[in-house]
Design a protein that fits this description.
Length: 945
């Protein structure tokens, strides 16, 4: 076992002494003053005097003076004790004040001593706090390492003083707390403890050394390097002194000058480790070196923290040590003045490597390319330079471009003027971008057909006459994040594009986790400007060279290029393209306009006369369907064999116009338009159940609104009738329109084979109606819909024939000889009785009619028997006579009484409340709706209310 010692490792004590000054001295206080003697002689003098006075005077009273002696002696003793106590209090106060002041001075000298040690031997946190300390020259050739913070011997000395407080102060002055514990780095360090904790300590120690020593003096190696070690500028820097890092239980990386190893508990310590740091807690450890041991608090770093510091050091190294490289060159200096078709396809200059022009051949080096680089590294400028160079070298019969900008929509604005550019797609128009990119699959099929028609196998065949198409994407990660389904499209183009003359150039800030392996494998041409993650650099060019590129403005435009046949990437500076270069090229370029790989967007207003009519009898033209994946726009129709169509759309979306469009193409005898008015809608749906119209077209507008106006029992029955109609569809077609996909509409929707989704108020409504969330748009024009998943613009009808309105029910007056009327008592009943009496009718209550011998014996005047439900129930004889042989009228407000008095369980025809409606049953027939005349009803009568 190593012996514990008060001497804590090697430090530079001379520097500490220089700030400590002379020893601090405590005063020696006399806390025990000498006791005063009793004044015996002075006490006996009064006694002797009193005896002499008594002998001289003979008075006995003179002897009282003898008592003064003891009194004077006692008083003197008391006064001496008081003075001694005061002296002790003064001495104690003096010593306490001296100890407090000396303690403050000890703390100040400790602080100065600690700061000087931290300045001479900073750990990671102090390096980060003081940027000027990084890579500052040290006098010692061998780097020292701070293994933690603990207690060390101080050079501060305290002398003098007595007592426990002075002893404690002297002991505290001899030890410096929270001081850096330093070991010689050349001896090697082994960190013993759990893997994850020990590895964090190893990272902190290595980063500390790399912050202290520049890569020109220290080279870092490892048998199993981690990402953060690879990111260090010290990694394999070739310096004379070598630091070997061993984070896990792996073999050591050969000979080294400094070894920092992670050792699991119980495992042997690697040779060459003179210092052993044994973790005893989460941040506590015991440091053993040269038979000395001390407790310390260790410093730890997570992998992400180490990676960030390594990246900053790499940037620092590039700023101080990187070769400035070739000067900036203009693309105009590398290009010919006019387009020329050269025998080598798509080979162009894009920059200069300091010795010669850098050429890129997208066909020979590709056929597809990846361009990586963080924001501000010059990625967009590289793409613009490459495109401009291709346009300068080749005319439109050789190459055309589809540009996709998903970083704000302005990167390729200057290139729109070039005749080679077939189109520019931006993230500002998400719907148009998705549509154009989906057309790429159709472009693949078109090129396959075009090659097959001329008997060619690839575009290099002279019989192939169409140009190559280069698809350039700036911010590919943003594109596939917004439209993940397009990733498969790019994978398909990458796999089949070589022979078809379709080339991908994908620009992205990050590659790892963004570009799938299946796509990356087909992009052998790799270019990378500066990236912030070594994994991205290695994914693109196979090394971390792109990660090591400087991030300064002067280094903007430097790129690492790796072709399919290159073992290592090469460095070049991308040429700069100016607006004048592009403008001059736009004027001098020649050739026909290139074929656009997608069709124009659907018009927002479409006349039916512009559409091709269907040759099939009975088909109805709906509009123009857009099929970008087929590069086709064709007429959408409602076929004769289609059983129906559901149209969902918000207010103003054009759903009524769709029904009007269908109506104007249907002959009147074969058209059934269900009215929006609820009474008419109820009657029409009921009639469709009883008498299905063969060969007709049934149109129902605002179904959800109609059902919402009906009472619950009528709404359920109406939905049931409509379901019956739809199940019987086949001989006729049903088109239903609604604003919202409610519960009742959803039941009907399941029975309609086709569905059109117009503009809706929210994405939630659109998805609830069966739409794909990715296809939702808040800016759809009227008539724009997704018909069975296909984007369609419905044609504008020539006119709006309007919704057929239901006819008013016939007016009823008591003209029959005998009429029974069911009406709740009230003002309306009294007005009716008065009006009928004035009209010449005889009006009796049910009780009065019961007193008649025979109700048929009423004379020539018409008889009206009026009563409420209870009165009629109590008079079954009269009720039976009237109901079976005469007219029986029930006010619409007495629906419950109708069922009780007539025994009819089916719902009667629906009556609008407050509209003077009633049901008429003639001699036992089914009830039919009638309207009371205003004269009969009287002013303000509300029979059904």
């Amino acid at each position: 076992m190593p012996q514990t010692s008060d001497r804590l490792f090697d430090i530079d004590s001379r520097a500490a002494t220089s700030h400590s000054g002379e020893p601090l001295r405590l005063p020696v206080a006399d806390l025990m003053p000498r006791r005063q003697s009793v004044p015996i002689l002075a006490a006996f003098v009064p006694v002797f005097g009193a005896v002499a006075l008594w002998l001289f005077t003979g008075s006995i009273f003179a002897l009282w003076f003898a008592a003064l002696g003891p009194l004077i002696a006692g008083a003197s003793a008391l006064d001496a004790g008081r003075a001694a106590r005061k002296q002790r209090r003064v001495a104690r106060h003096t010593l306490s004040t001296a100890i407090a002041e000396t303690s403050r001075l000890v703390d100040e000298r400790h602080d100065r001593e600690r700061k000087q040690l931290d300045s001479q031997h900073p750990d990671v946190i102090r390096f980060l706090a003081d940027d000027t300390a990084v890579w500052r020259d040290r006098s010692s050739s061998a780097p020292d390492i701070v293994v933690g913070r603990g207690i060390m011997t101080s050079s501060v000395q305290v002398t003098g003083g007595e007592g426990a407080e002075a002893d404690a102060l002297r002991e505290r002055a001899r030890h410096l707390a929270d001081a850096p514990v330093i070991v010689a780095g050349g001896g090697g360090i082994a960190v013993v403890g759990p893997q994850h904790l020990a590895a964090a300590v190893v990272r902190a120690l290595v980063i500390q050394l790399c912050l202290a020593v520049p890569p020109t003096r220290l080279s870092v190696t490892s048998a199993k390097p981690a990402d953060w070690t690879l990111a260090l500028p010290h990694w394999n820097s070739g310096a004379a002194r070598t630091l070997s890092v061993c984070e896990a239980s792996v073999p050591l990386d050969g000979d080294c000058d400094i070894l920092i190893a992670c050792v699991e508990p119980g495992a042997p310590i690697p040779p060459g480790c003179a210092c052993v740091v044994t973790l005893t807690g989460l941040t506590s450890a015991r440091v053993d070196e040269r038979a000395h041991s001390t407790a310390v608090t260790v410093e730890m770093l997570a992998s992400a923290q180490a990676l960030d510091i390594a990246g900053d050091l790499s940037t620092r190294a590039c700023a101080f040590t990187a070769d400035p490289g070739p000067p900036l060159v203009a693309l105009g200096e590398l290009l010919p003045r006019s387009a020329e078709n050269v025998p080598v396809p798509l080979r162009v200059p894009i920059g200069h490597d300091g010795h010669m022009t850098t050429w890129i051949d997208l066909v020979a080096d590709g056929p597809h390319a990846i361009v990586a680089g963080v924001t501000g590294s010059g990625k967009s400028e590289l793409l613009i330079t490459w495109i401009t160079a291709l346009c300068a070298r080749f005319d439109t019969t050789s190459v055309s471009f589809l540009l996709v900008d998903f970083k704000g929509g302005t990167a390729f604005d200057a290139l729109r003027a070039l005749p080679h550019v077939a189109g520019v797609i931006t993230d500002l128009d998400a719907t148009g971008a998705r549509r154009a990119l989906k057309s790429l699959r159709a472009e693949v099929q078109w090129r396959e057909r075009a090659l097959g028609e001329v008997g060619a196998r690839e575009i290099g065949d002279e019989r192939a006459t169409f140009p190559r198409l280069v698809i350039v994407v700036d911010e590919f990660a943003a594109l596939v994040s917004a439209h993940p389904e397009l990733h498969e499209t790019f994978v398909d183009v990458a796999a089949r594009g070589r022979a078809l003359g379709m080339h991908l150039v994908l620009g992205t800030q990050r590659v790892a986790g963004v570009v799938r392996d299946s796509l990356l494998a087909n992009c052998p041409l790799r270019m990378s400007l500066r990236v912030t993650d070594p994994a991205d650099s290695k994914s693109v060019v196979g090394t971390d060279h792109a990660f090591r590129l400087a991030g300064t403005p002067e280094a903007r435009g430097f790129a690492m290029i790796k072709r399919s046949g290159d073992a290592l990437p090469s460095s070049t500076r991308i040429a700069l393209t100016t607006g004048e270069d592009i403008a001059r090229l736009a004027k001098t370029s020649r050739g026909p306009a290139p074929r656009r790989p997608w069709l124009p967007a659907l018009p927002s207003d479409l006349d039916r006369s512009s559409l091709q009519t269907s040759p099939v009898m009975g088909d109805i033209v709906l509009g123009l369907a857009d099929e970008p994946d087929q590069q086709r726009q064709c007429t959408a129709t409602l076929k004769a064999e289609d059983r129906g169509l559901l149209v969902i759309g918000g207010g103003g979306s054009g759903k009524t116009s769709v029904l009007a469009l269908i109506a104007e193409q249907s002959p009147s005898p074969r058209l059934v338009w269900v009215p929006r008015e609820v009474e008419g809608a109820w009657d029409t749906l009921s009639s469709l159940v009883d008498d299905p119209p063969d060969g007709a077209i049934v149109l129902i507008d605002d179904l959800d609104s109609v059902l919402a106006q009906l009472p619950s029992e009528y709404a359920l029955e109406a939905v049931h009738n409509l379901e019956h109609v739809l199940r019987a569809a086949g001989k006729y077609r049903v088109v239903v329109a609604a604003q919202r996909f409610t519960g009742a509409v959803s039941r009907v929707a399941d029975l309609l084979p086709r569905r059109a989704l117009l503009a809706m108020p929210s994405r939630q409504d659109y998805v609830a109606a069966g739409g794909d969330s990715a296809t939702f748009s808040e800016r759809r024009p009227p008539g724009r819909a997704r018909l069975d998943g296909t984007l369609v613009q419905f044609a504008r009808p020539r006119g709006m024939p309007g919704n057929s309105s239901a006819s008013e029910p016939s007016v009823w007056r008591p003209t029959a000889p005998i009429t029974g009327f069911v009406l709740r008592p009230g003002a309306a009943a009294r007005r009716l009785s008065t009006s009928w009496t004035q009209a010449g009718c005889r009006v009796l209550s049910v009780e009065e009619a019961n007193s008649l011998t025979s109700i048929t014996d009423v004379g020539e005047r018409a008889l009206v028997i009026v009563g409420d439900g209870e009165q009629w129930q109590r008079s079954w004889r009269t009720l039976s006579a009237v109901r079976e042989n005469h007219d029986f009228v029930v006010d619409a407000g007495c629906a419950a009484e109708l069922r009780v008095l007539t025994g009819i369980r089916e719902l009667p025809p629906y009556c609008k409340p407050g509209a003077q409606r009633a049901w008429l049953l003639s001699r036992g027939e089914q009830p039919r709706r009638v309207r009371m005349s205003k004269v009969d009803a009287g002013p303000g009568a509300q029979l059904a209310g």
